[in-house]
Amino acid sequence: MRGKFITIEGTEGVGKTTNIQFIQNWLESKQLAYLCTREPGGTPLAEQIRELLLAPREELVCDTAELLLMFAGRAQHLNQVIEPALTEGAWVLCDRFTDATYAYQGAGRGMGTSLIAELELIVQGSLRPDLTLILDIPVELGLKRASERSDPDRFEQEKTEFFDLVRNGYLDIARKHPDRCVVIDASQPLELVQRELTIALEAFWYSSEESG
Ligand code: Z5A
Description:
With 212 residues, this protein is an alpha/beta fold. The protein has a single domain (5-210), classed as 3-Layer(aba) Sandwich (Rossmann fold), CATH 3.40.50. Helices cover 57% and strands 13% of the residues. The protein has helices at 16-29, 44-54, 63-87, 98-108, 114-124, 139-147, 160-176, 190-211; strands at residues 5-10, 34-38, 91-95, 131-136, 181-185. A 5-stranded parallel beta sheet has the order 2-3-1-4-5, with helices on both faces. α1 crosses α8 and α3 (63-87) packs parallel to α5 (114-124). It binds ligand Z5A. The site of ligand Z5A has 29 residues, from α1, α4, α6 and α8.
């Protein structure tokens, strides 16, 4: 049976990395074969594209170049890693996917949705995540958490207004796709965030067991 595709999303400092380990423990508790991966990245070539995208640089990166690099990495990642794993029956847990493109490039950079939707169709065909966990946090709190962690990459150097647009972009996606998106208040203490994650994962697990 084909595996399930779970993505985790959110703006800066929402705690994706922290909670991915928790989700991996949940997948193990269900004795599911799974693969954990990330975007941009996930294959040697796509990881090189990630380095190009995240490195702070003096040259201005134009929005279209940024968008195409995101989808170039995604095409490789899907072809080499995600599709083969799902076909073999493994569950795939991916740290960011195309919703990040709608939120960061579409809403944050102001590129809109139509070009992204075209590229999504070319690169992914009908493939979409089965479950998307959106960790939501007020932008100021997320930036504070992220700043205590490491030197800012090219995206983290953006202004608060950019991340407000990104956050609204994610909330729009959740409104448009309530069938697969669950928004979790990530400003809560970690135990409460993880309790909500467990509820969402268990509900998804039972519905996928029922549907076969
Ligand atoms: N990007 C894009 O533009 N378009 C695309 O299509 C894709 C990506 C796919 C790299 O992503 C960049 O690529 C990203 C968008 C862009 N922009 N940036 N920057 P990334 O996912 O690799 O980078 P990231 O957003 O910085 O993710 P991260 O490293 O996973 O960080 P995080 O979500 O903030 O997670 P964290 O390190 O677990 O948490 C941050 C801190 O908060 C840490 O000290 C935790 O201990 C703390 N924390 C976490 N949860 C809590 C709670 N509940 N309470 C208190 N403290 C907490």
